[in-house]
Amino acid sequence: MPTKALNLTAKRLITTAFIAALAASAAGCGSTSKFTTGSISRSDSRPLETMSSGELRTATSRLGQSYASNPNDKRIAMNFSAALQMDGDADQSLAVMRKLAIAYPKDREVLAAYGKALAANGQFAPALDAVRRAQTPEYPDWKLVSAEAAILDQMGQKDEARQDYRKALELKPNEPSVLSNLGMSYVLEGDLRTAETYMRSAAQQPGADSRVRQNLALVVGLQGRFDEAEKIASQELSPEQAQANIAYLRQMLAQQNAWSQLKDQDKGKAKVATN
């Protein structure tokens, strides 16, 4: 597959994966909580990304009710924002985090999550500012360094991003979320072999979570190894969800290939016309 075609496809497909990785990086910068693994409440420890669309809507609705009753509760607001983000409502997710950032203007955890919500809305410069303001230079937090790197990657600043990823790995050696994000950086560039190396290393680490393994499934699928990708995805998702994800991946790659072929045909006709 041509690198240019891959880049166009990859940038569409990895948006959700990168935002999920950024959520893992930005969350938990202070106290630990179930939000750091993407769960929504004490009664439900399942990560958001493993839920079906119906389950996610139910969870989001339940969190919305809790948020309406107590909008200044930091944990409820952050969980609600995360659920909204996963459910595809980036605008409302950002609105929730913006209000929380006003209420907690110096809270590192809130600022980091606010930066993540800004990045999800494509507001990368303000997102970078929020994450950097949350950082303490004398005691750097690897989660914030990784979050900064993920934002820089989405801004197209891959060299600066990779410097930050490696700095985060110096602070937290073999951290699976950072290795996975670094792999995603190479996916953006179209270097899938290098990406898979980092993804597999991430998935083999003791602390690897569902997001890390789903990212590995993504990069394997992008290389056309669909059966292997579905097998990896099935370890985290229901068989139906795994099949649906791989079917979507197949469709996106097929559409991209068809579009590339049409462009090549157009170029060929143009050359004939000018000869």
Automatic annotation (TrEMBL):
Name the UniProt key words of this record, in alphabetical order.
Answer: Repeat, Signal, TPR repeat
Give a yes or no for keyword Signal in this entry.
Answer: yes
Keyword Disulfide bond recorded: no
Q: Where are the TPR repeats?
A: 142-175
InterPro entries linked to this entry: O-mannosyl-transferase_TMTC, TPR-like_helical_dom_sf, TPR_rpt, UCP035836
Give the region (Disordered) as residue ranges: 30-55
Signal peptide range equals: 1-26
Q: Where is the composition biased (Polar residues)?
A: 30-42
PANTHER family registered for this protein in UniProt: PROTEIN O-MANNOSYL-TRANSFERASE TMTC4 (PTHR44227:SF3), PTHR44227
Spell out the protein name for this chain: Tetratricopeptide repeat protein
Record organism: Mesorhizobium humile
Q: What is the lineage of its organism?
A: Bacteria, Pseudomonadati, Pseudomonadota, Alphaproteobacteria, Hyphomicrobiales
